[in-house]
Structures are given as C-alpha cells and as structure tokens.
Model the fold of this input.
Amino acid sequence: MDLTHGHDSLASPGHLTAWWREHARSDLEAGLPDVAGAVEFREALRSMVSTNSGGDFPPAASEVIDRAARAASLSLRLPSEGGSTLVPQASGLAGVVASVLASVHAAISGGIWPRIKICRNPECRRAFYDRSRNRSRVWCEMAACGNRMKARRFRQRGTGSEDR
Done:
C-alpha cells in the first residue's frame, strides 16, 4: 500500500493477482474474498510490525494472524545440511500467507525482527528494514518521508499550528 500516491496493490482481485505473480511467484487468480483476507492480514501484520516502531499491538491483530497461521498449513523441513525451514503446504491466499508467516518466523528466530519497522509518516506507513547502527531510523526514506515530516514540524513551529 502506498498511501502517499493512493495506490493499494491489494485493492482488487486484479491487483492482488498481479501482486501474487510478482512477489509470490504464483499464477493463482484472486477473488473478492481473497482481497478482503489479504488486506485484513496485511493490516494485522502492519500492526504487529508497528510495535518495533513504538506502537501498541492491538489484540485483534493477534487474532487475525493466529487465524491465518492455522489456515496456512506450514510444515517443518530439516535439510541434511542443517537448520530448519517452514514450508507452506496450503494453496491460494493461505499458501501466500504461509510464505509470509515463514519469513516472519525466520526474522524473529534470526534476531532481525526488531529492525523491521513502520514509517512514522502517517501518510506512508511502509514497512522498512532499519539498517542504522543504533536502530533509531523512523522513516522509510530520509529523502522522502523524513524530509516531509521535518518540513512539516518546522512549519508547525513557525506558525504555532498543530495540524498542518
């Protein structure tokens, strides 16, 4: 979802199908129930990630993610070279969600989860990976959202206005 440009990659069955083909390497055709489920899951996951940026984790998001995980049907693979991976067994939206959940699990168990954050620009809200040494990054891109937010705060200080 790109709030700054008003584009949602999951807004319609056609958009979701295109997203699946590009990101999930799936040639599934999405339907309206898939769109509703994908948007609900995305927003719950965004809420979960927002805790890494200082946000509160709403219990409703946990319920959505738990329900999606139950439908995802993941299996554990133990390759001969060591380690382990979670492999999606479901098809359709549940299979795509399973892939995302496997990545979330890998990020948590790999210790990189706290670096995945949500941009603090309320018009953006993109997820990003915080590569800063002290994990203090708050915007997806300094050149875009960082500059906008700093300019907005500067204008607010100059005019005394709170919502500009």
Observations:
- The chain has one domain: 13-159.
